[in-house]
UniProtKB/TrEMBL annotation:
InterPro entries recorded: Arg_deiminase
Metabolic or biological pathway: Amino-acid degradation; L-arginine degradation via ADI pathway; carbamoyl phosphate from L-arginine: step 1/2
Name used for this protein in its record: Arginine deiminase
Origin: domain of life: Bacteria
Family the UniProt entry places it in: Belongs to the arginine deiminase family.
GO biological-process terms attached to the record: L-arginine deiminase pathway
Gene: arcA
Primary subcellular site in the record, as a coarse category: cytoplasm
Cellular localization per UniProt: Cytoplasm
The keyword Cytoplasm is assigned to this record: yes
SUPFAM superfamilies: Pentein
Entry's Gene Ontology molecular function annotations: arginine deiminase activity
Length: 406
């Protein structure tokens, strides 16, 4: 078995992938941030410092931190990987043959670090220092993007997710995030840490149009004991869930997938923004969204990849049964109804568990953190005044690559 194994949401976290926000944030403006799926314009320096505090908190707890920018730059040092990525991210269909060739020539001459920076952080027409006779140049203003920034790469949880002994390289729902997937495909294929290792790729590694089969890692909770809990949100479709479930069953990596329906709105973009696993029998939950009547299905299957679907009643009972625990302890968002809504918006329910009963969360969510504390959950607080404005907490910003089971 390879070292890449994520057996739960709560076992000891050993290795994690983060992305320190840099150039992409400096390209965000009030007029373009909505298009780029960001709710706000962040202070680049403060967000970077807060992210460093997050990474250092993990390191102090013995977690190895891999950084996306570094992995991407090291992947680009492999000639085949660099050629593959440039031909995908600067394709003739996107730019026309003439301009694609000019842009690729320019980008191909950059250092691996600079090239990674441009692929992650974007390039405007005004920043392209070479002439081009292409019509594209004449048709665009200097502030238009040739390569759009990918500010949502900050949320490494979504683009790929490790489930037991393999990874799903997720086809993303929104165009503003679809290029992220190619970066992860390249890293998992060519980066020395992953190349030649034996791990399964369940879904999403092939280059094809996945149509409506989209899935994002923020909706995928590896609750352990062979079970996976997946939210069907604004970004994760039933079609995507069935595809991932089929891959899990085909490789004998999971016994059951529990799929639950979420409302399709911004404040609960992914399941992990309204529910996370903190200890074997304990979840944090935002009750306004995760109500008793949410629809829930149980998916099972075998090595043929066939998926059998059965509607379940109350999702909590389905989880209790899958985990073999008595009654689940659900810790609801803290404060009165106003404070709870504010804290949920600031990701009070989106915490990253480092080991059972020890979680990382934003220090600003004082009412909810107090409730966690009373329930015997230790919160390691991190600053999030800037980072939190990107609408994602510690779980959103982390992609566990190695974690113990329960």
């Amino acid at each position: 078995m390879s070292n890449f194994y994520v057996g739960s949401e709560i076992g000891q976290l050993r290795r994690v992938l983060l992305h320190r926000p840099e150039r992409a944030l400096s390209h965000l403006t009030p007029s373009n941030c909505q298009d780029l799926l960001f709710d706000d314009v962040l202070s680049v320096e403060s967000a970077g410092k807060e992210h460093d505090a997050f990474a250092n908190t993990l390191r102090r707890e013995g977690v190895e931190v891999l950084l996306l920018h570094t992995l991407l730059a090291e992947t680009l040092a492999v000639p085949e990987a660099k050629e593959w990525l440039l031909s995908r991210q600067v394709s003739e269909h996107r730019f026309g043959p003439r301009f694609a060739n000019d842009v690729r020539c320019y980008m191909g001459d950059l250092s691996h670090q600079e090239l990674a920076s441009v692929l992650l952080g974007g390039l405007s027409y005004g920043e392209l220092p070479i002439p081009s006779s292409s019509m594209m140049r004449g048709m665009h203003d200097k502030d238009d993007f040739i390569i759009k920034p990918l500010p949502n790469h900050l949320f490494t949880r979504d683009t790929s997710c490790w489930v037991y002994g393999g990874v799903s390289i997720n086809p993303m729902a929104k165009q503003a995030r679809q290029r992220e997937t190619n970066h992860l495909r390249a890293i998992y294929r060519w980066h020395p840490t992953f190349a030649g290792e034996s791990f399964i790729k369940y879904f999403g590694d092939e280059e094809k149009n996945y149509d409506l089969s989209t899935i994002e890692g923020g909706d995928v909770l590896v609750i352990g004991k062979g079970a996976v809990l997946i939210g069907m949100s604004e970004r994760t479709t039933p079609q995507g869930v069935e595809q991932l479930a089929s891959g899990l069953f085909k490789h004998g990596q999971a016994k059951q997938v529990i799929a639950m329906e979420l409302p399709k709105h911004r404040s609960c973009m992914h399941l992990d923004t309204v529910m996370t696993h903190m200890r074997e029998d304990t979840f944090s939950i935002y009750p306004e969204v995760v109500r008793k009547d949410v629809k829930c299905w149980s998916l099972t299957g075998d090595e043929s990849g066939t998926v059998n679907v059965k509607e379940e009643g109350y999702f909590v009972s389905a989880i209790e049964k899958a985990l073999g625990v008595g009654q689940l302890n659900l810790i609801t968002t803290g404060g009165d109804s106003f404070e709870a809504e504010r804290e949920q918006w600031n990701d009070a329910n989106n915490v990253l568990t480092i080991r059972p009963g020890v979680v990382v969360g934003y220090e600003r969510n004082i009412y909810t953190n107090e409730k966690y504390d009373k329930a015997g959950i230790t919160v390691l607080p991190i600053p999030g005044d800037e980072l939190g404005r990107g609408r994602g907490g510690a779980r959103c910003m982390s992609c566990p690559i190695e974690r113990d089971g329960i």
